[in-house]
């Protein structure tokens, strides 16, 4: 069975998990132990997959690999221009939409940890963004203004002509990746999309996809972390419920090692 090293609190992990659930691909979900030298994620990031010994990291690479291997043409069409548009979005994702997490979501989640727990070379830029936001008295305002620009850009560059980002008629792997960054902010009360009707309609379309609430149980239980600052107890409670919701799907929880 496909092994996915990931976590319900991790945006790129959720997009991989959701893609597998949507396509009825059973998985084992492993919460990695980053200090365990033998772990495939030692000193690295999640998500990572282990497909019968083939180990792959980076969410866009994982989603494209799984889509091609399992013929998920609804999410990753054979049409080369649609596929190129999906790839275009996924290349921009890391330095565009991903900043929604680094400037708004993570700083508000990590108050419960008192800072950033650990680092590695892959997380250097991310951690700079998070640290800046946490140290800034106007961190919330600056994060919200940046995300407003990101949303505006996504609306103009990707959602002007269709219901989904890359011109597909149903959600593609680009939509899954993007939603994990934007959708979480609405649930956390960190983003108000009332002025962004196009983006708001898209997040509603994404929420209507099957198994949304189970895959996002962590976010739904965590709730508003703007008005009521996060705490470790609350974070752990949301993780426990998030994992329980995933266990009720075709996701088997396995320990690392
Ligand atoms: N570019 C990576 C980003 C992965 C990422 O940021 N993972 C985070 C969790 S959401 C992580 O592993 N953080 C721990 C660390 O960097 O040490 C991808 O798209 O998969």
Based on secondary structure, the structural category is alpha/beta
How would you spell out the order of helices and strands? EHEEEHHHHHHHHHHE
Q: Ends: how far apart? A: 16 Å
Number of domains: 1
**CATH class designation:** Mainly Alpha
- Mean pLDDT reading: 95
- Taking pLDDT < 50 over at least 5 consecutive residues as the criterion, the unreliable ranges are none
CATH topology tier name: Glutathione S-transferase Yfyf (Class Pi), Chain A, domain 2
* Helix proportion: 40-55%
Overall strand count: 5
Ligand roster: glutathione
Task: Based on the coordinates given, report the CATH architecture.
Answer: Up-down Bundle
Please explain how this structure is put together.
This protein has one domain (2-255): Glutathione S-transferase Yfyf (Class Pi), Chain A, domain 2 (Up-down Bundle), CATH 1.20.1050. Helices cover 52% and strands 9% of the residues. The chain contains eleven helices and five strands, in the order βαβββααααααααααβ. A five-stranded mixed beta sheet has the order 4-3-1-2-5, with helices on one face. α1 links the parallel β1 (2-5) and β2 (27-31). α1 crosses α7, α4 (99-109) packs across α5 and α4 runs parallel beside α7 (173-187). The mean pLDDT is 95. Glutathione binds at residues 10-12, 45-47, 58-59, 94, 118-120, 122-123, 126.
Nutshell version of this structure?
With about 260 residues, the chain is α/β, with parallel strands linked by helices.
């Amino acid at each position: 069975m496909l092994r996915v090293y990931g976590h319900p609190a991790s945006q790129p992990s959720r997009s991989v998990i959701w893609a597998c659930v949507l396509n009825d691909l059973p998985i084992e979900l492993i919460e990695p132990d980053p200090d365990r030298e033998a772990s495939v994620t030692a000193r690295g990031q999640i998500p990572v997959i282990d497909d019968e010994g083939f180990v792959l990291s980076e969410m866009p690479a994982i989603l494209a690999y799984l889509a091609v291997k399992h013929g998920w043409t609804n999410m990753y069409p054979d049409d080369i221009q649609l596929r190129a548009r999906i790839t275009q979005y996924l290349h921009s994702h890391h330095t565009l939409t991903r900043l929604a997490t680094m400037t708004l979501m993570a700083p508000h989640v990590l108050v419960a940890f008192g800072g950033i727990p650990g680092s590695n070379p892959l997380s250097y830029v991310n951690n700079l963004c998070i640290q800046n936001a946490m140290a800034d008295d106007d961190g919330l305002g600056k994060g919200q203004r940046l995300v407003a620009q990101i949303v505006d850009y996504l609306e103009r560059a990707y959602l002007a002509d269709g219901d989904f980002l890359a011109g597909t008629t149903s959600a593609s792997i680009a939509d899954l990746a993007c939603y994990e960054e934007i959708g979480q902010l609405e649930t956390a009360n960190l983003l108000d999309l009332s002025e962004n009707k196009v983006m708001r309609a898209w997040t509603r379309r994404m929420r209507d996809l099957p198994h949304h609430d189970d895959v996002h149980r962590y976010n739904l239980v965590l709730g508003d972390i703007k008005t009521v600052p996060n705490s470790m107890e609350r974070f752990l409670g949301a993780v426990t419920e998030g994992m329980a919701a995933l266990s009720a799907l075709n996701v088997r929880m396995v320990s690392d090692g």
